[in-house]
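DNA 3'-5' helicase
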Amino acid sequence: MNETINDDTLRLRPAQEAIMAYRGGRLAISAVPGSGKTFTLSLLAAGLIADGRVDTSAEQQVLIVTFLNSSVDTFRARIRKRLLAMGLADVGFDVRTLHSLALEIVRRAGETPAEELAVLDDFQSRQILEGAVDGWINDNVRLWETFLPQAGREYSPQMIASWRDITATTAASFIRAAKNERYTPDAIHAAIRQQFDAPDGPDDAPNVARSPLIHMLAGIYSRYQAALARQGGLDYDDLIWGAADRLEHRPDLVESLRARWPFVLEDEAQDSVPLQELLLDALTGPNGNWVRVGDPNQAITSTFTAAHPRFFSRFIDRPDVTARTLPNSGRSAHLIIGAANAMLNWAIDHHPVPEVRRDAFRRQDILPTPPGDSQPNPPDSEAGLRIRVYRHREEEELPSIARLAVEYAQRQPNQTIAILAPTHQMGYGIAQQLDALDADYDNLLRGSGREREVAAALHAVLAVLANPLDMKALQAAHNGLSELRETGPVYEPFGGEGDDAARFQAILRSVYRPESILFPREEETLTDILPAGVATEEDVLRLGQLAEFLRDSFDLRTLPIDDLTLALADALFAPQPDAAEESAASHELDLAIAYQIASQLRQWREAQPEWRLPELVAQLQSVASGRRALNVVRDDAGYEPKPGRITLTTQHSAKGLEWDAVFLIGIDGMWIPGSLEAPFLGVHDFLGGDPNAEATAQLYYLMRDEAGIYPDRTATESAHIEVICERLRLLYVGITRARRYLHISRSRATRRQNREQEMEPATVLGVLYRYLQENAPER
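Structure:
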């Protein structure tokens, strides 16, 4: 996306010309950011067709395998354009995502009628997994609770909800790892039974078959697969697994597919999972024609998928593979390219963790485009690189970055601007600052904006219904409903102009009997329960509206949880008959969000029949806080930044995009730790370590007698090495999104869980600061 090489002139760079000379065999292309890999791969496909390497009269095709549906459309358009420019018919090529390719293979195998194949998307698979988790917990409550901290043994609904989320996430990692190794639940259980009574090995070889963790996750995996089977469905890993199995055991199928697709070109190979590599290797055969294009230095999914850049790097280094590079990029100014190269080479040569030096990056500098290129680099006279350190994140960094981005957009209305946050939570903080400035921006954060506001408001009201004597819940209900009113049209009782939030919250806190607000005694008025001389008539009116709405809501408590939620949503969001078209559309979106929340609550209730409103409210808090995303339809595929309008997204989601100016926030030692002893943001630390790492390590040790971890490292240490590597690559991706201006910031302190916390600097930021001192142009 956003590759702006002019494919009308076809003035190829030397590296591209070398790739165009390909005629067959295995080829690996390592492409730096902005080097035009989509253009080059499209040109190669058209060239193979034009040279008669595929027999179009026999319906042969060059197969292009890519990751996103939007990329499918891009490839098709570029190949078609090139073929038509050469006076050829636009035939002889087939562009597919990996999943559509696997589905085609399974269908062509003919073992299952096409109409009976049901492939579930990620959201549906996650729902089934959560049902499997809840079912296992119901049958194994005591074992499940042994993983929780034992001190006190008084578990709040919030702690239980958090542990359940961690269990589901860990189970997802375990199942993904198992399927990529093609381990069925039966095979895992058989290995557990076989090894359970075996004598203990050496101290460094524990009997993992006796681990409660492996028993829990194997049990959840069995339930998950059984639920898929009952629905006649496949998840994405099952689909690719099934396709690979058919290629292994059906030589007639392999022969027909190789005849149809004699050349296979693979995009984004750095994100390839083992099953994908297995499938494409079987499809092309030992002497087949397989071209793989990717950038190991932009592999940013290894900590939450089965992908890892080592797979593509190993392919590049194979003796039967021809290796080529696409080293030239016209995207960024030389100053910004130099910053990316400086941090890459420092990580390879000087990072204090030896495994990071070896595995974080592949040595490959970004080179500017040669003179006369159709995509010249922006001149350094137009470039800027700034590194800022703020005293406090919430009080200084986030407000300052929001203001600076808005000012940049005002000064440069013809340029594109992005703010890239390391986490969604930090992104939400920036969104609040941009909202306060009335900024013109696109919010691409998952579970952001209105979705979280609707969830927070419904959560707040339901929390009051769950515990009407909790004054904090009452205050939260007022806050949530007030914020909802301020960010979108909400009808009575929250449709008027609001009072000062802090003052009104203070008034609420002054009420020592919260039940008197909702259920006043006979002849008792709201004025009577408020401190004398403090509340105004408007305050009393506002409190009366809140109390009336909540009292009416209590009458709905006997409804099923989904009906209760929808009834509350109708009271808040149902459009009025005379509403403007834009306002009505906004209300319809709010109701759609509320419907998703209601459906999720119903599923939790069905999975845990003993749960009552307090437990369900605790679960909903994960949606309101942004830890869990709703299945709200968003159309971010093919997103193109707009000049003068700020894009807000995460570093992960920025890959494939580019902007004139990029603001990278929160680049501190918590996000990019400099050693294995440092704290790791976003990594759970229970069970003595990282649960995902422990789960996959125990699986590998059980099934193949080695844990798949770094030598002489624990599973958690190995996971932390991967975190450091991936976050360095994320920083590299963030830097290389910028064309002309790059602003990197961190803070010395932040507020976490209502506590002030000092933040260590990221070691790599010192490297970039030294680079800036040595290379910044004098102004």
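Residues 131 and 603 are 8 Å apart (CA to CA).
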